[in-house]
């Protein structure tokens, strides 16, 4: 930025932008755009800021008070750690999130690749069916899920409610991401597959060694989305999980603000803050993978 | 290695007609065989069948004595260069070239040797560690070739490998490919729609159209003895002049009587059977002459002149309004709008049966 700034100064008087010069209505429009954008930013950042402040404020009692004095303390975090099942909830959520992400990733890899590269009977019909079924919200099937779980768990006692939840999260994720991945793989030239076949790859090798590395940005996003899902969902987890020790973070934290007798809003804020950490870490780690444009240069030029 | 096709046919799933049928061919060891044809004629299908990427619906494909119909591509001992190069974008040039050997679980040292050798041959040593996205089109082309060479294949398949290069580079790569072919001594099969590539590179051309073989032979035969009107039209630029007419009393007379031509004695013998029948003559643009040395002449008005330097192409119109292409050396003086008298070199006339399109003076 400094470099460009310096250059600009030297050429003072020369109009270098490719856009037409701003007119008065243009300037007004620009100001309005920025006003809206800043308002938006404030709407998002202010509550977050309040949450962070409240989480670290030792003066806060049961209810978060806007005008309370500030005193730095980790009291609310200690409360979470000592008085609630917080660590258990973290473990549960991570277990469910990681399992969902893995399951989705593996299944979508197969389905996306198959739908993109193979021609088989019922290909179009099944794609259509998947699309249509998605219009029904998952929650509509909650009674069916209950029955299914009780049937399966009577045969396999190890099949817990959490596992059922993983399946419920992964199901729609697989369906919708199949489309996304299929579209992405469609854009990869089939000549790469042919070349790999001649080079001695089996169908699975082609996916593993050629297609998967190329589709990595997309796979990363899919994994990220399905990982975040369980962190965000409250409804399904609330209905399906009944004992506090099996709760996920969303359900568990809600118990801190759902009843006025056990109300602890600052602890809720602290828990929310901690919840963000794994997701933020994941984003930072995967940032490089998310960068797309890997296919350029494979074909033509 | 010899490649032999017996009655080869291909029908795609969901299509009514055969894309290719009754293909009988024999490609000799060390041949540089070019499969030529307009787009949609099935030439790429044929190549992919040889590669094993497309199944064979009927007939047999032999590599030497081995029937390879059902053998997967990797076991056919072939290498293929694709139109789009199909380099693996996430691997370096080195890894791209080494990939097939790695898949075969060769020793690391051997792989390294082979890759370096091929890189040296193609002069791409400097960017062995670059990604395909970081090198130019011509360099990618070389890498694609290198990837094929490294395998040390018995048959080298190429699917329009030069079509993505600019004109100058294409000319250069043509020569280089021929040189490479001579160096390696493998059988090469090359698919293209560009007749210049076919004429300049091939030791054997196969011209396909409409799923059938139109002619097989050396480039010279294609130019001087096209087997039918389609071949005559396809080969040669500027393209051949075809004039429709009748054979009457030992002479060829065009439909509107503007052109009369007495064939050479040899041709007259063969044409006897066509007395009073519809025939067409074909004459290459450069086989007209202006002296009237061979008797029959005609008048033509020059509409447009294309100056190519070493030659001029005259777009001329006959009295009846039909067009004619005449090419003359570049230093001859012609002006647009002029009317000139031209004659034929009667030893260079191709006679075709108008009905079947087949050549008469074989």
Features of this protein?
heterodimer, A: 301 residues, mainly alpha, MetI-like fold, 2 domains, 13 helices, disordered N terminus, B: 362 residues, alpha+beta, Rossmann fold, OB fold (Dihydrolipoamide Acetyltransferase, E2P), 6-stranded mixed β-sheet, 5-stranded antiparallel β-sheet, 9 helices, elongated
Low-confidence stretches of chain A: 1-8, 293-301
The CATH level-2 architecture of the largest domain in chain A is identified as Orthogonal Bundle
| Largest β sheet strand count, sense and barrel closure of chain B | 6 strands, mixed
What gyration radius of chain B follows from the Cα positions, in whole Å? 25 Å
Count of alpha and pi helical runs of chain B: 9
Helix content of chain B: 25-40%
Instruction: Report the uncertain regions of chain B.
Output: none
Elements of chain B, N to C (H/E): EEEHEEEHHHEHEHEEHHEEEHEEEEEEE
Overall SS class of chain B: alpha+beta
Looking at CATH, the homologous superfamily of the largest domain in chain B is P-loop containing nucleotide triphosphate hydrolases
Largest protein interface?
Answer: A-B, 24 and 35 residues
- N-to-C CA distance of chain A: 31 Å
Overall mean pLDDT of chain A: 85
Instruction: Give the strand order of the largest sheet of chain B, numbering strands 1, 2, ... along the chain.
Output: 6-7-8-3-9-10
How many domain units of chain B?
Answer: 2
CATH fold-type name of the largest domain in chain B: Rossmann fold
Name the CATH architecture of the largest domain in chain B. 3-Layer(aba) Sandwich
Coarse shape of chain B: elongated
